[in-house]
Write a structure and sequence with these properties.
- With 356 residues, this protein is α/β, with parallel strands linked by helices.
- Helices cover 43% and strands 16% of the residues.
- It folds into 2 domains: 262 residues, TIM Barrel (Alpha-Beta Barrel); 89 residues, no CATH class.
- The protein contains 12 helices and 13 strands.
- The strands form 3 sheets. Strands 1-2-3-5-8-9-10-13 form an 8-stranded parallel β-barrel, surrounded by 7 helices. Strands 6-7 form a two-stranded antiparallel sheet. Strands 11-12 form a two-stranded parallel sheet.
- α7 packs across α10.
- The longest helix has 25 residues.
- It is globular, with a radius of gyration of 20 Å.
Amino acid sequence: MEFGICLHSKIDDIDLVVRAENLGFDAAWFADSQMLWSDCYSCMALAADRTTRIKLGTGVSVVDTRVAPVTAHSIATINVLAPGRTFLGVGNGFTAWRLMARKPARLVEFEAFLDTTRRLLRGEEAPFTHGGKTTDVAFQMAELGFVNVIDPVPIHVSAFGPKGQALAGAYGDGLIAAVPPQRSAVERCLANAAGGAAGAGREFDEDSFQLTTLTAMAVLEPGEDLTSDRVVEQCGPMAVMGLHYAYERFRQFGVDPTPHLRSVWDDYVALVEQSPEAERHYRIHAGHGTYLHPDEVQFATPELIEAACIVGQADQLVEKISELEAAGLDQLMVLPSFASRYRAAEEIGSLIKRSG
């Protein structure tokens, strides 16, 4: 199993990446949401200069907040600094678009973005559609070293539904999902990706295709449980983020929440809908993945934490990680709260050593 750390991209917090590399983490994923954190590519450039082994990439870049040629150009620039250890995570924009009161990219736009980006990162000419017009585009002076399209940049597609996961198989080298810590969920994600690859006429090699799950983790101390203040601080933002996502789906598509959210759903909806509609996009994502909004602490229940996070005593976690790896999960991308990020990195570093 590989271990990645997902960072709240912060331009003056590169020490965390350096520490993660020293602790044995395999990857650092830099979050890209322009209304929340620092610019992810600026952070990656600094991290590339201060590290030598850890893989660096976006967690995740967002469809059309930067158009496909700009995204390809940005990550290919990082690839000059960290050749062979640069990757691109791509998603359709859960917060990046929502916090500007806009809807994420449609599936057809997502697919076109992936196709253009993938071709450009291979040094090819690619079709680019913008403003209703399609033209072919290509990097013009890559041979002078302004960008690096020689060393491969793997593309990891972030998708939680079957159609998006099929795009990962059709265009990507990996899939990022919020996979519950269960074998059946891992197998379902891989089946969706394999179906997408088959539909695109691509060979699907489960050994080389990387499945990554976004989660939070905590190693319980003796006598500690999921109600402890430390666990709630470390894992609560990730757990409650599921409510943010579910409410947006409910709001846009009328989709009911998943079963583990139903016990708190009515209270959460009542809280969010106290905000005027014109300001609600701020309220829905308050503290998003970074800290628990004071009004949302009540929703960080053991049930929500257990469903979204991997928590247990060290021996239990090693066993659970082994089970997920055997099912086909390749990497745990861990997003702790901002306040607990260094402590969480140390905890997971100890698990990395125990897991071999």
